[in-house]
Amino acid sequence: MPWSEQAWQAAAPIYQNILQHPFITELMNGSLDKDCFRFYIAQDALYLGAFSRALALIAARAGDTDTSLQFIRFAEGAIVVEQALHASFFRELAIETAGAPAPAGHHYTNYLLAQAALAPIGNAMAAVLPCFWIYKQVGDYIYQQQQKGSNPYQSWIDTYAGEEFGLLVQKAIAHCDAMAAQATAEQQAQMTGCFVQASRFEWMFWDSAYRQEQWPV
Ligand SMILES: Cc1ncc(C[n+]2csc(CCO)c2C)c(N)n1
């Protein structure tokens, strides 16, 4: 069984929790509070900025030029998405600035940056994988389950359900599987741990937006 299948199974309970989260169910039926979505988009702009830096760090640390080039492209993709967010959703939702990161986003981005900078490269790759893979699965799920009719969040939904995005995700999975194939059982277990941890942060990121999470003090 490829590493990615084991990792997905390990994170499956978290993924099920994500699908049942009210942020997702309400996004899907269009009833999500506009302020929660605004909060999410602003936090996501901050997230994408940090995420692209994490990908660029992995590119710099990769052992071969093919992997390096792929992660440079991933990093570019994240910047392009971030700029598109600014251009469309920020204007549409009248968001002036992204503001400061909330606790969950802060925790998630700093985890990714620390893994990308300091951890073994396989761990770093496994830590960024849920960002791709969970969004693909959630995007497809929403797209399939959605009732037809107008949904104010349709353009967001369409971003992650497309075939082009699916190919990108396959590449990210393949790079992790190639790393894992050369790793010891212990290193593979560490990679799985990173994948599960980042999946947890994906749930927390949505939950944070749903609660419009603030710093306690
Ligand atoms: C919290 C959070 N997690 C994942 C994504 C999805 N995502 C962001 S960049 C990228 C790859 C390159 O475009 C993907 C799939 C998101 N937007 N926000």
UniProtKB/TrEMBL annotation:
<dbReference type="GO" id="GO:0005829">
    <property type="term" value="C:cytosol"/>
</dbReference>
<dbReference type="GO" id="GO:0009229">
    <property type="term" value="P:thiamine diphosphate biosynthetic process"/>
</dbReference>
<dbReference type="InterPro" id="IPR027574">
    <property type="entry name" value="Thiaminase_II"/>
</dbReference>
<comment type="function">
    <text>Catalyzes an amino-pyrimidine hydrolysis reaction at the C5' of the pyrimidine moiety of thiamine compounds, a reaction that is part of a thiamine salvage pathway.</text>
</comment>
<keyword id="KW-0378">Hydrolase</keyword>
<dbReference type="Pfam" id="PF03070">
    <property type="entry name" value="TENA_THI-4"/>
</dbReference>
<dbReference type="InterPro" id="IPR050967">
    <property type="entry name" value="Thiamine_Salvage_TenA"/>
</dbReference>
<dbReference type="GO" id="GO:0050334">
    <property type="term" value="F:thiaminase activity"/>
</dbReference>
<dbReference type="InterPro" id="IPR016084">
    <property type="entry name" value="Haem_Oase-like_multi-hlx"/>
</dbReference>
<dbReference type="GO" id="GO:0009228">
    <property type="term" value="P:thiamine biosynthetic process"/>
</dbReference>
<feature type="domain" description="Thiaminase-2/PQQC">
    <location>
        <begin position="8"/>
        <end position="211"/>
    </location>
</feature>
<comment type="similarity">
    <text>Belongs to the TenA family.</text>
</comment>
<keyword id="KW-0784">Thiamine biosynthesis</keyword>
<dbReference type="InterPro" id="IPR004305">
    <property type="entry name" value="Thiaminase-2/PQQC"/>
</dbReference>
<comment type="pathway">
    <text>Cofactor biosynthesis; thiamine diphosphate biosynthesis.</text>
</comment>
<protein>
    <recommendedName>
        <fullName>Aminopyrimidine aminohydrolase</fullName>
        <ecNumber>3.5.99.2</ecNumber>
    </recommendedName>
</protein>
